[in-house]
Amino acid sequence: MSDDTATAKTDLVAEWPFPVAATLGSAVRAKGIEQELRARLPFPRRGDLAIEAGRVVLRLPNEKGPQFEGARATIDKALEGIAALPVLPREIEDILTITGHERLKWTRDGRLQSAGTRTVKLRGRAKAVTFHVFDPRHVEDLLDRDLVTIWREEDRKTVAENRRRAAGKAALTRAGKGAAKTAVRGGGRRDKTAKPSLAEWDAFASDGLLR
Known about the structure:
By secondary structure, the chain is of the alpha+beta class. It folds into 2 domains: 8-83, 2-Layer Sandwich (Alpha-Beta Plaits), CATH 3.30.70; 86-178, no CATH class. The chain contains 8 helices and 5 strands. It has a 3-stranded antiparallel sheet with strand order 1-3-2, with helices on one face. Helix 2 (27-39) packs antiparallel against helix 4 (89-96). The chain starts with a helix and ends in a 5-residue tail after the last helix. Residues 174-195 are annotated as: Disordered.
């Protein structure tokens, strides 16, 4: 028996099924769940957690018994609520197969319902970044109803209608400018040979009103 095998047998190990349903079919969210579970552990213990073949595995040396029990209790509690873990921007883009532009637009107009905001300071950036997160139940409902397809069609029709209105408005503006130019060109010229016309001229003349 090798030393590695003997050591492995003395390790303290706890296993849980990986919460596949909570990923909503997204590899990006699966990675986010893994990172969230690690983040719940004290920093020195984060490297003791691994995802192996659809399992969450916690492994510590036998002499770390008290720390092992604490870490196991932490993961137990974290997994209980993992399905309700808010969906991050990069996760919802992957789950719904949408672009960052669509996410921002639909969040602003309320079609994507924000579940609140989160502020983090990213490595390499001086300022913290605040972004919206989303309720996984809302995201799942969007998937089930295929609302992204409907929204894209609505947006396509809105863009087409806006372009049609803009073209009509531009045509009216051009027509108005053309009429104004014609009026200016013709306003300074008067035909001096033209005689004024007056209705019932003969009647006026017979009454002597023009004498």
